Task: structure prediction
Amino acid sequence: MSDTDATDADAGGPYARRIAAVRDRLGDGTTDGPDDADGGGDADALVLFPSTNLRYLTGYTEAPSERHLLLFLAADAGPVFLVPELSGEQVRAESAVDDVRTWGDDEDPLAAVEAVADDLGLRGGTEGVDDGVGTRVLVDDTMHARFTQDLREALPGASFGLASEVLADLRVIKDDAEVAAMRRAGEAADAVIRELRADGDDVVGMTEAELADHIEERLDAHGGTGVSFETIVGSGPNGAMPHHTHGDRVVGAGDPVVLDFGTRVDGYPSDQTRTLVFGDESPPEGFRQVHRLVREAQEAAVEAVEPGATAGEVDAAARDVIEEAGYGDEFVHRTGHGVGLDVHEEPYIVEGSDRELEPGMVFSVEPGVYLSGEFGVRVEDLVVVTEGGCVRLNRTDRGWKTE
Result:
């Protein structure tokens, strides 16, 4: 990328910078896919459809539908949006892309796809003389099959890969605005946890579903927008199922309750877990020891986070504490996952991973112990890697007691 291109990208804000970074990687051998015949491992173009990838590059958010709404980004050309005619005005107003082309419901969308591919030189330059022979196109990882099939029909000689070959390494490093949004989302979740602790005995007698509804109402009241994922309220033995969401079980006095929830700010999520006990009865036998163990494991993992450490080393820091105490078989998931526009994305904090941590990465640290038929304990915070270690994006008490 030339100095002029860099200046233009900076002037255009985050989306222009991100688009410029993708173009810089396309065709220069820095994608993560298989090597081509020349040994480059490069690609000629990226094609996205409604997804978090599309939002990340353009600022435009849309739900997938049966209509072709595609973003084309070639290595040597600016981005081109191909959208249904009924969406044209909205896309022009809400996205960072100037070249927006439309097709009508009375037209063949495949012909429109071929026309854009021709203009971008993906079909050989003129009237598709070689139908994309030798071209390599990266498609959105979540693209619906009907659209990938149309791309294959439009470019029968092309090879295909996944957009994550270019985008994963870009999205994994968050800029200041992204971190700030997640911090605000974390503050909303923190406020709700504080209120739940203060609710104390009032929670006893509520069903898990009622408590989940209450949590979601309070998240909105504290400035969040919706939920990051379906709220988890796992009381008593239900807490031993890590992804139990919520049901009609009534929260009893002394029940450990796994509370895993988050909200979004500017599209970016929070994700935290606390395991609390409500009411004036004692928790079940062994709970105090397990909760203390999980907190120690989480603390060990957080202390292991620093630039240059690997994701596997962070996982091991938590796992070793739990295994040494004899509960290794009850820690049944990875220690964490990256968080961004997707609540689960790179980097994955999983056993054996050699992915090195870098400043700007954001991920969860959430060890847990799950005793089937009895209770579960999980404690989770999001952390952002800094030059000197990491900072938590959740600030509330990690203990189990309520008022």
Remarks:
- The CA atoms of residues 249 and 353 lie 38 Å apart.
- The first strand starts at residue 45 and ends at 48.
- The chain is about 35% helix and 20% strand.
- Confidence is low (pLDDT under 50) at residues 1-11, 34-41.
